[in-house]
Amino acid sequence: MPQPEETTMDRLFNKVDALLKLVENLKAENTLLKKKIAEIQRHPKTNPDDSETNDKELSHLKKENKLLKEREKLIKNKVERLMVKLENIES
C-alpha cells in the first residue's frame, strides 16, 4: 500500500515535536552543567596549579552553559514561529 502523502501540517507538527524534544535535551544538559559548576564552586582545589585548572574549567562550563541557554531560546522562538504558521494554516 502506498503511504499517504505527508501534509504541510504533518511536517510542521513533526518539526515542532522534534524541536521541543531538543529543548528538553538542552535543558537536561544545562542542568548537568549547573551541577558541575556548583560542585566546582563548593569544592575548590587548594593547590595553585589545580586552582588555575579549576578556574579554566569553571570558565569553560559557564560559557557552555550560556551557549546552551541561547540555543534553547532560539529553538523556543522557532517553535513559536512554527506554531503561528500552524494556526494560520488551520484558519
Task: Kindly describe this structure.
The protein is an all-alpha fold and 91 residues long. It has one domain. The chain contains two helices and no strands. α1 runs antiparallel to α2. The protein is rod-shaped, with a radius of gyration of 20 Å. The model has no long low-confidence stretch (mean pLDDT 86).
Would you summarize the structure shown here?
With 91 residues, the protein is mainly α.
Key descriptive features of the protein:
91 residues; mainly alpha
State which percent range the strand residues make up. Answer: under 5%
* Tally of separate domains: 1
Q: Please bin the fraction of helical residues.
A: over 70%
The count of β-strands is 0
- Output the structural class: mainly alpha
- Listing every helix as H and every strand as E from the N terminus to the C terminus, the arrangement reads HH
Layout of secondary structure:
Layout lengths: L7 H35 L5 H43 L1
